[in-house]
Design brief:
The complex is a heterodimer. Chain A contains 19 helices and 2 strands. Chain A is mainly α. Chain A has a two-stranded antiparallel sheet. Chain B folds into 2 domains: 52 residues, no CATH class; 174 residues, MetI-like fold (Orthogonal Bundle), CATH 1.10.3720. By secondary structure, chain B is mostly helical. In chain B, helix 7 packs across helix 9, helix 8 packs across helix 9 and helix 9 packs antiparallel against helix 12. Classes of the chains: A mainly alpha, B mainly alpha. At the A-B interface, helix 1, helix 10, helix 11, helix 12 and helix 14 of A face helix 1, helix 4, helix 5, helix 6 and helix 7 of B.
Chain lengths: 422, 284
């Protein structure tokens, strides 16, 4: 489009402004108005939600505590080489003494002790013990002997190595921990086999999520197929059976499964009554993986059925009829013609269920026992019980990355704008 | 598949009925756990299973004692009050911010639309345990951890994506020339919004608000971390009840919550039919 008339004059609006500028101005105003409408929520979400997530990412690498509590020691320790095989010399112990006096007065040494205890057990008691002894130490030195007599661990290379490793303000220690690794004498190495719990838990979370997704697909596909094939009036009625669980509180459904699956619960009572199992042979279906799988399949099933249904609804029945008229039997018509068209629905439903299930916390916590818990239960444990927030944050970061990757996949399949509810 | 043709072979006939039976069983799996707690909540005993008296339908087997306990126990009453103090305020915040933003997002020229959308939808995507962890760390830095205000803000943030999605969906069917017509007739933008746009998109706003309400009303993970004993909500009380001292009062609470869900579902269904009728689609 040209903005000049045939005789070379610039097109103008009625009040004499160039048309191009006036349009651009109007467009700018429109953009600004749209942004003004979005701004309140954007700011709200950034402060109440995005900032906390960023804070968590930050916490997973933050490690200011060593250099804040023992500033002089950290500086003095830079010169020390752990490969020498000996504890640092007197100068470092002088710095340690000065730092510890301040730390004990401010009572920060126990916090540092419990922080470093995550890296090597025993350090917490070392700091506590030394803290009690520090007042009785001779201010004139020599300090190395006095510290060694307070606790022999001050003579260990390992203790100092941990201190030196965690001197920087940022650390990859939490992430190494989350990957079941640690920094040993020869760089990064895996922890002893009996201490590797997180990779195992991530593996189990993945495995259980896949099992749950597959069972949701197996149960959801026939239902969605039936709902899409039935006349609208009937399918809307049956849809209530899908939507009611969807709308019912998660805790209500979890408590229902707790009631049903217990050893003295409804299902076991029924099986005993029907003489399928004996009274002594009641099935253990709760507080293990079975409980988690059954309850979570039930809870997430609507999330599989709804996207499947919305895709199947758009598949025209004429294709299947055409296939049959061309001589395909029922199975071939379904498998070669109908099923490929329903694949986008399978993708959408499966990714959605999978995303939801790998981050689940409440249901595994209540019906999973010890063998059916997920990585999220471990994160919760580190936040509220062990208070190892850095590790909780790094495990959370790993889980978040996994979910975001999956979400990009979901976005490619369905598109973020096409998310539908109910 | 909807009906069996008269020329169907015996094999097709068998499969047709087998398939229906399979579907029936899956529907049973979906609905049975929810229905089973209703009669159990009237159990006269402190059991979680049907007693002999209940199965023989004798009146002694049934009682309202668990409901009585719920309405008299101060713990449950405190939790109920808290839930009704937190959820409505969070809903109002989420609906107000969310509706405005959805209207902004539906304009034709929005810069960085997909990036903004991704940020606004993120509370729905990020697993709750991660949101809870992040909020716990951050809110304790700024002194909001363990406060009523903190829980309300967190729940509002979790509810906004639902409002955005539902309102955006209604706005797709909204004729923008109505806004221009209203403006050409001399209405200012505020009047246009309340007199023209709002009445047409109200079903979307209400269903978004219902989603936001149920998000807050059902939410337990975030409140578990972010709240202190003073913000104990109904789901929190149920969670601790299920984990520690499992008491049948939970079944009474659960039954009441099922009743609430049925009411919400009915309202939503009516709204959906209304908006479909307005758009000229035939309701089911």
């Amino acid at each position: 489009m040209s903005d000049t008339t045939q005789d070379g004059q610039v097109l103008t609006t009625q009040d004499g402004k160039p048309l191009k500028a006036a349009l651009a101005k109007a467009l700018r105003r429109e953009k600004l108005r749209a942004l003004m409408l979005i701004a309140p929520l954007l700011i709200f979400v950034l402060i109440t939600f995005v900032a906390p997530i960023v804070d968590m990412l930050f916490r997973s690498v933050e490690n200011g505590i060593v250099s804040e509590t023992l500033p002089e020691t950290v500086v003095a320790l830079r010169e020390w080489d752990p490969a020498s095989g000996e504890a640092p010399d007197e100068a470092v112990f002088v710095a340690l003494y000065n730092d510890m006096v301040i730390a004990v007065a401010e009572k920060t040494h126990t916090r540092l002790g419990s922080r470093l205890n995550y890296e090597q057990s025993g350090i917490s008691s070392l700091f506590r013990k030394t803290g009690r002894r520090i007042k009785r130490m001779d201010e004139g030195g020599p300090f190395k002997d006095q510290f060694l007599s307070a606790d022999k661990k001050w003579g260990d290379v390992a203790t100092w190595q941990v201190l030196q490793q965690f001197s920087p303000s940022y650390t990859d220690g939490y992430f190494l921990n989350a990957f079941d690794a640690k920094r040993g004498a020869e760089g990064i190495e895996l922890k002893p086999a009996d201490e590797r719990i997180y990779m195992f838990l991530f593996g189990r979370t993945l495995f259980l999520s896949i099992v749950i997704t597959v069972s949701c697909l197996l149960l959801g596909y026939p239902i969605a197929f039936l709902l899409a094939a039935l006349p609208l009036r009937t399918s809307n009625l049956l849809m209530i059976l899908v939507l009611l669980p969807f709308w019912t509180s998660l805790l209500v459904r979890t408590s229902a499964w707790k009631v049903l699956l217990q050893q003295q619960g409804v299902i076991n009572d029924f099986l005993v009554w029907a003489n399928i199992i004996s009274d002594s042979g009641r099935l253990v279906m709760i507080n293990n993986q079975t409980g988690t799988i059954i309850a979570m399949t039930h809870i997430l099933l609507p999330f599989m059925i709804l996207p499947l249904y919305s895709v199947m609804k758009t598949i025209s029945p004429t294709y299947v009829r055409a296939a049959k008229s061309l001589g395909a039997n029922d199975w071939t018509a379904f498998w070669r013609v109908y099923f490929p068209q329903s694949v986008p629905g399978i993708g959408a439903g499966a990714v959605l269920v999978f995303i939801l299930s790998i981050g689940y916390y409440i249901t595994p916590e209540l019906v999973g026992g010890t063998s059916g818990i997920f990585i999220s239960n471990r994160i919760a444990y580190h936040i509220s019980s062990s208070l190892n927030w850095g590790l909780a944050a790094s495990l959370g970061t790993l889980l978040l990355v996994a979910v975001l990757v999956l979400f990009v996949v979901y976005d490619k399949i369905v598109g973020i704008d096409n998310v539908k509810l109910g | 598949m909807s009906a069996l043709p008269p020329y169907a072979s015996p094999l097709q006939r068998t499969w047709f009925y087998t398939f229906r039976i399979i579907c029936g069983l899956i529907f049973f799996f979906l609905i049975f756990p929810i229905l089973v707690i209703l009669p159990l909540s009237f159990n006269a005993q402190d059991f979680f299973t049907f007693t002999k008296e209940m199965l023989s339908f004798s009146p002694e087997g049934y009682s309202f004692k668990h409901y009585n306990d719920f309405f008299t126990n101060p713990d449950w009453q405190q939790a109920l009050t808290n839930s009704f103090l937190i959820a409505p305020i969070a809903t109002i915040l989420a609906t107000a911010f969310g509706t405005l933003a959805a209207i902004g997002l539906s304009q034709s020229h929005v810069p960085y639309k997909s990036a903004i959308m991704a940020v606004l939808i993120s509370p729905m995507i990020v697993p709750l345990i991660i949101s809870a962890a992040g909020m716990y760390f951050f809110y304790s830095r700024i002194g909001l951890q363990g406060t009523y205000f903190g829980v309300v803000l967190a729940h509002a943030a979790l509810g906004t994506p639902f409002v955005i999605i539902t309102v955006t969906a209604t706005l797709v069917g909204f004729d923008r020339s109505l806004v221009r017509a209203s403006a050409s007739l001399g209405a200012d933008p505020v009047t246009t919004f309340f007199k023209v746009q709002m009445p047409l998109i109200i079903p979307g706003v209400v269903s978004g608000a219902l989603f936001a309400f149920i998000t807050s009303f059902d939410e337990v993970v975030v409140v578990l971390f972010l709240g202190s004993a003073g913000q104990k909500t109904l789901p929190w009380q149920m969670f601790t009840g299920l984990r520690e001292q499992i008491s049948p009062t939970i079944l009474a609470v659960a039954s009441l919550m099922v009743a609430i869900s049925i009411a919400l579902l009915t309202v939503l269904e009516l709204l959906r039919r209304r908006s479909e009728r307005l758009r000229g689609l035939t309701p089911g």
